[in-house]
Design a protein that fits this description.
With 323 residues, the chain is α/β, with parallel strands linked by helices. It has 11 helices and 8 strands. The protein has a 3-stranded parallel sheet, sandwiched between helices. A 3-stranded antiparallel sheet has the order 6-7-8, with helices on one face.
Length: 323
């Protein structure tokens, strides 16, 4: 099964193709299309949210769906809003949950209902909604749902913007500003890669960073300024690398976008543990998620990328791993 809220795009098509590839030609792929009112808060864009069922049917079936299940609100919630709901718990109160109170309770409630109604063996979700994916995995594990949850990598447009049904709301100028979200994430990733490369060079020296420091001092005495600076950078790799440097690199891009016309208004920039979405410590080793949310004009966008600091911890989940 692939769950969607409609307004399908290439990101959804990628999920459907992944499902089809996994189950094979003889397997059955269900795509759900349902705009869930429970996960929209006061003042959010429920009425504005695009509804394009005819186009959705064409895309879904063309990508490999066997059937599209597009129930009405009355069919999903007979008798009105449900009195009993799934609660997301502490993880659901962070980041997106703090910005959109009750959102994840509504999301998990409808996911649980649709899992019961369709009874799939496999459920495919995009990694762009990383916190949503983590909460669905937690619900499935904690409440013993008989389904395997599969994460699929975020699909991006050529300019780097993560595909989203809300991208269609952006004017040309707003879209240019919105590109700062992905640029910030990539800047953080590049900073981490550079620091990890320096760390590897330091570790490869016979006496590690101490030897690099001694080499830097010797080169400085000989007047070899550039070579000394390089050796010093190698020596300081461990101290300079890590979550703090990644956050700083990403925030620098977002700070510039805040001065653009139209400006970007940052909601949050966070570097979190994928297990519970708490901020990672400065000495964190293993998997992490660099996540951002911001408004450009009246449109709120989110994005994230997975990162790995040093040797990965065997207990730390990856976004793409199945549950």
């Amino acid at each position: 099964m692939v769950m969607t809220m409609g307004a399908l795009h290439e990101g959804h098509a990628t999920l459907i193709r992944a499902a089809r590839a996994r189950v094979g030609a003889d397997g059955f792929v269900v795509v759900t299309v349902f705009v869930n009112p429970l996960q929209f808060g006061a003042g959010e864009d429920l009425d504005r949210y695009p509804r394009t069922l005819d186009a959705d049917l064409e895309l879904a079936l063309g990508a490999g769906a066997s059937v599209v299940f597009a129930p009405s609100v009355d069919e999903v919630y007979p008798g009105g809003e449900p009195q009993v709901r799934i609660t997301a718990g502490p993880m659901g109160e962070r980041l997106e949950g703090a910005s959109r109170p009750g959102h994840f309770d509504g999301m998990l409630t409808v996911v649980a209902k649709l899992l019961h109604l369709t009874a799939p063996d496999l459920a495919f979700f995009g990694q762009k909604d990383a916190q949503q994916l983590a909460l669905i995995r937690r619900m499935v594990r904690d409440l013993n749902f008989p389904v395997e949850v599969v994460g699929v990598e975020t699909v991006r447009e050529e300019d780097g913007l993560a595909l989203s049904s809300r991208n269609r709301y952006l004017s040309a100028g707003e879209r240019r500003t919105a590109l700062a979200l992905s640029r910030a994430l990539f800047a953080g990733r590049e900073r981490l890669a550079a620091q990890e490369a320096l760390r590897a060079r330091a570790d490869a020296l016979p006496n590690g960073r101490d030897r690099a420091e001694n080499r830097a001092e010797a080169l400085s005495r000989l007047g070899e300024a550039r070579a000394a600076a390089d050796a010093h950078a190698v020596a300081q790799a461990a101290e300079c690398a890590g979550p703090g440097a990644v956050r700083a690199a990403a925030r620098a891009v977002l700070d510039e976008a805040a001065k653009a016309a139209p400006p970007l208004t940052l909601d949050y920039l966070a570097l979190v543990d994928p297990a519970d979405f708490t901020e990672v410590a400065d000495d964190h080793a293993g998997q992490a998620v660099l996540a951002v949310a911001a408004r450009v004009g009246s449109t709120r966008l989110i994005d994230n990328i997975p990162l790995s600091f040093g040797p990965p911890s065997p207990e730390s989940p990856t976004l793409g791993a199945a549950t």
